[in-house]
Amino acid sequence: MFDQLFERVGLGVLSEALLYGEMPDGQADSMSCEERLRAAECEMQQQLDDMGLEPQANEDVQEIISGYQAKISSIYFELGMRAGVKLYRALVEGMTGAIKPESVV
Question: Measured between alpha carbons, how far is residue 59 from residues 50, 63, 72 in Å?
Fold first, then answer.
């Protein structure tokens, strides 16, 4: 039963819905995680290029952004794991409740 549920749930769609409350631009359905990371990096680089920074300043800004991302990525991962565990527990409890009604003791 869990296998069928997990096959139907796209993790990209689920993560976007949990993070943003909706799907921005429908990206999770059409792009892999690697493609989405590359697209975000290209967008950031384009925005930095559009600012007309000197090459050294551009590199400094990229380094600051990378450091920030490194610091928060583990936090987002932990939050995702906690949410996943809570969802799993709720799902198991719901299934257990369906199998063993509370009225039967």
Answer: 14, 6, 20
